[in-house]
Specification:
Helices cover 31% and strands 21% of the residues. The protein has a seven-stranded mixed sheet with strand order 5-4-17-16-18-19-20, with helices on both faces. Strands 7-6-8-11-12 form a five-stranded parallel sheet, with helices on both faces. Strands 22-21-23-25-26 form a five-stranded antiparallel sheet. The structure holds 5'-O-[(S)-butoxy(hydroxy)phosphoryl]adenosine. It catalyses: (E)-4-coumarate + ATP + CoA = (E)-4-coumaroyl-CoA + AMP + diphosphate; (E)-4-coumaroyl-AMP + CoA = (E)-4-coumaroyl-CoA + AMP + H(+); (E)-4-coumarate + ATP + H(+) = (E)-4-coumaroyl-AMP + diphosphate.
Length: 695
Amino acid sequence: AVGGGDELRHVEDMADLPSGAGKSSRVKGVILGESLASEEDDLVFPSRDFSQQALVSSLQQYQEMYKRSIDDPAGFWSEIASEFHWKKKWDSEVYSENIDVSKGTVMIEWFKGATTNVCYNAVDRNIEAGNGGKIAMYWEGNEPGQDGQLTYAQLLDKVCQLANYLKHVGVSKGDAVVIYLPMLMELPIAMLACARIGAIHSVVFAGFSAESLAQRIIDCKPKVVITCNAVRRGAKPIFLKEIVDNALVECSKNGVSVGLCLTYENQLAMTRKDTKWQDGRDVWWQDVVPNFPTTCEVEWVDAEDPLFLLYTSGSTGKPKGVLHTTGGYMIYTATTFKYAFDYKPSDIYWCTADCGWITGHSYVTYGPLLNGATVVVFEGAPNYPDSGRCWDIVDKYKVTIFYTAPTLIRSLMRDGNEYVTRYSRKSLRILGSVGEPINPSAWRWFFNVVGDSQCPISDTWWQTETGGFMITPLPGAWPQKPGSATFPFFGVQPVIVDEKGKEIEGECSGYLCIKKSWPGAFRTLYGDHDRYETTYFKPFPGYYFTGDGCSRDKDGYHWLTGRVDDVINVSGHRIGTAEIESALVSHPLCAEAAVVGVEHEVKGQGIYAFVTLVEGVPYSEELRKSLVLAVRNQIGAFAAPDKIHWAPGLPKTRSGKIMRRILRKIASKQLNELGDTSTLADPSVVDQLIALSDC
Ligand code: WT7
C-alpha cells in the first residue's frame, strides 16, 4: 500500500517532463502574470561598477577558470586547497574516483592521506590571521531586541569548552552526536565542537517530530544528544526537550539507548524548573560546559574521515543518511561561498536557512566561517512580529549579502511592498536564492523591490548530496536571466540526458546528471552503500543522477524544472511522498494513501494526499484533521498535507502499481490531460476520484 520499495523503479515512473522545454513549468504558479515567450531572452546585467570589483569580472575570465578546473581538476583544486591549513599534505593523487557502477563499487576520494581539521580552518586559522576580534556571528533572537554576538576569539573559547566537555564524557573521533537545537549560536558551536574532536555530527531540524528524531537516532546511534528545553517560534513556545524525551523512549524500545542528553537552558523561552528531567541522563549545558577550559587541542583527521551525517528524504519511506567527509567538503563549501557571493572581508552575510538543513551546514556555518566572514544567525520567524522583520534585521546589522528561499520571497511579496520600502536596505549588494526553482515574477520582485534593482541575484542550484553550489551565477561575471541558475561552478560538469541516458547537446530538456566527481560530493549513504549506488549511480550509468529535470536554452543557461522522482519540495524543504504515505497509513482508519506534489502559490509545491479509508468508515472533517495530525506527529508540521482527497480506490495497473501520473493530473485539475487510462485494472476509479474532487 505504501509507496516505496526499490527506488530504481521510479526512473521509469518519473513525473513527465514538460514537453518542449521545462520552461513552461518553471513559470508555473505565476503570481503577477508575465509574458513567457520572451523569458529566456530577458538578460539582467550586473552594473559595470559591480563587475569591476568582482572576483570574477567577465564571462571570459570564468571560461578560462572553468576550463582549467575541468582540464586539470587536481591542479585547480590543490592550488585552492593550499590556502588552507593541513597538518599533513595529501598523497600524490589529489583525487580518485569511480562513479561508473559497471566498473565496480562507486567511490570518491579527495585529498586522501592529508590530515586537517575543519574547525581549525574555520576558527583558529582566522584568529591566527589577526582576525580574532572580528565578529564571527551576530545572533538575532525571536523577539526584536534579543540579540548577541561572538568574535572569532570568543567563538573559539565556546567551541573549545564544549569540545572538552564532549571529550570528558567519552565522545571521541568517529562517534556520532545528534544535535536537535533551534537557531541559537549554540547550534553552530556544537557543530564546530564535534568537528574539532573528529566526532560526526548529525543535526536534526528542530521542526521534526519525536518519531522522525527517533528514526535518525536509531540509525546513527549517537553517544550524546544535544538539545535545549524550549524555543519560541513567533509567539508560540515549542518544548523541544519533551520531543527529545519522547524520541528517546522510542529509541530504547528499539534497543538504542542514549546515555546523555545535554540540554541548553533557553531562558528566553522557558525556565529550568518547568523542564521535565531524567536524572542521570539529562545534564544542563550551563552547569557543565562553562567549567571546561577554553583551549582544546585539535584532532587531526584524514581528509576522507566523516565530518557529518545529514538525513534527507528519498523515494522510499526511510530517510537517507547523507555522509560528507572532511577535506573535499571544506574546500568546496569555502570556494563556492567565496565566488557565488563574491565575498569581501567587509561583508555582513545573512542566510535565513536553519542549520537543520544542508544550507545551514554549508552556508550558515562552514562556507562563511572558512572565509572568515561575519554571519547573522537568526532564531525567529521571518514574518514575526510582522512581515518587515527581515529588512529590519538587514538594516540593523548592515547586511550586505542576503540569501534565502523562493517560498519566503513569494510570501513576503504577497504581504505587500510597504513592509520592504519602510526600511533602507542600502547595505545590500548581493541577493541569493535556494531550495527550489524561483519563478521569474518572484525573481523580479526580489530584484526590483528588495534589491532596488542594484543587487545581482545568485540563484544557486544544489542538493544535500552535492555539499555545495553546483549551478550558480557568479554575480559579476555574466548577465542573469530571471529564473535560471545559469552556469556550472568550477569543476562541475552538468549534462542533460534523455530517458535512455544518452547525453543531449544544445538546446534541450531532460534529466540532469553530473559527469565526474567534485570535492563536495557525498561519499555514501550511512550504512547503505548499495542504496547510494542504486539511487544515484545506477539510473544513468556513468553519471551521478540528481533527481531533477533541467532544460538548457540556446545561450547555454540552465533552467531547473523540479524533481522528477517521488520527492517533493515544500517551501524548500524536501520530503518523500512515501514518508507522508507511511505516516497516513499508520492511522488506524486509513487503508491506503498516495501523495503527490501540486503547485502551490507560496510553498512552490503543496502536499496533496489521496486517502482510502478502511471499509465502511465515513468521510468526515474530524477524520481529515486527525489524518493531518498523524503526519504532523510522525514527521513534523512542515509535512502536513495541504489537501486530503477522499479516494474510494486508487488508480492501479493490473500489477498493482499506483499510477501517480494520473493522480498528479487530478490533483492539478488537468482533467483533459489524464492520458491513457485503459491499462488500469479498474478505469472507473478515475471517475470516482474526479467526482470527489471538491469534497
Ligand atoms: C533539491 C535539493 C540545496 C539547498 C536546499 C535544498 C531543489 C535546490 C534549487 C534552485 C531549482 C532547486 C532541487 C534539488 N533545488 N535549489 N536554485 N533551483 N531547484 O536541498 O533538500 O537536498 O533539495 O532542491 O530539486 O534537487 P535539498
